[in-house]
Amino acid sequence: MAFLQGKKILITGVLSNRSIAYGIAKAAHREGAELAFTYVGERFKDRITEFAAEFGSNLVFDCDVTSDEQIANLFTDLAKSWDSLDGFVHAIGFAPREAIAGEFLDGLTRENFRVAHDISAYSFPAMVKAALPLLKPGSSVLTLSYLGAVRAIPYYNTMGLAKASLEASVRYLAENLGQHGIRSNGISAGPIKTLAASGIKDFGKLLGFAAGHAPLRRNVTIEEVGNAAAFLLSDLSSGITGDIMYVDGGFSHVMGLNSSDYE
Ligand code: NAD
User: Fold this and answer.
1) Among 16, 104, 133, 162, whose CB has the most other CB atoms within 10 angstroms?
2) pLDDT per residue over 24-52, tens digit each?
3) Are 251 and 189 in contact (CB under 8 A)?
4) 156 noted as active-site residue
5) Which range marks the domain in which residue 219 is found?
6) Where is substrate bound in this sequence (predicted)?
């Protein structure tokens, strides 16, 4: 049996068919989940409605996470169709371009810091808080992070600070929600060419370095992240919470030196 059969899962962050959230939707749909989606702004409504239809869903909601009102409305509107939520996927990230385009301190301003943290970090626990009336024992919430949360990665800069906060929120949510049987986890994905990633200076070099130095000797795909996400959203992972799972071909955890460094 498909392992997400009967689960209702809200997926944010689908922007294109290269989005990590699209890979998650593919895997969750394949495993039998019912899906709902969010988009940001009217001009993306048709596009996301088409993606939703691909996955047998007609539930699409406008939600810009910089607005408390839109976050609240999302879950009020969703509750008109679903009386509970088994899974919530937060695949949202943004930093002003100048914050991820040069030296860390050159792009560091109070405003860049605020925007990156507001959209990329605050929004996860804020959305979970708004979703709480719909979450129930067995529900699972999930966000997407990157190695820049725990290591200094050139040009990731202020986004790395926001991801560190996001990863901390995974743990605080796990502690707070565990008493209700609700789990909170993150996936730290290796670099993947998406619209958000293309804003990071020299992202191509990051891709090449990761592929050259990972034990699997390649980059990961949105399908591989999607499969890991489906597992974390499912009862198969019922004993796992507060965790950051690395889906990065082993890049961050395994190698000291790489054989190519000897060439
Ligand atoms: P993407 O561009 O496809 O998705 C980013 C999403 O963030 C978009 O859907 C966009 O609409 C949404 N977003 C931005 N501002 C928003 C706002 N104010 N309100 C609501 N949504 C907003 O790129 P992606 O790489 O699939 O990004 C998804 C997540 O994965 C992000 O958190 C990103 O940091 C993370 N991630 C990406 C990589 C990578 O290399 N691509 C690696 C690790 C983690």
Assistant:
1) 162
2) 999 999 999 999 999 999 999 999 999 99
3) no
4) yes
5) 8-250
6) 95
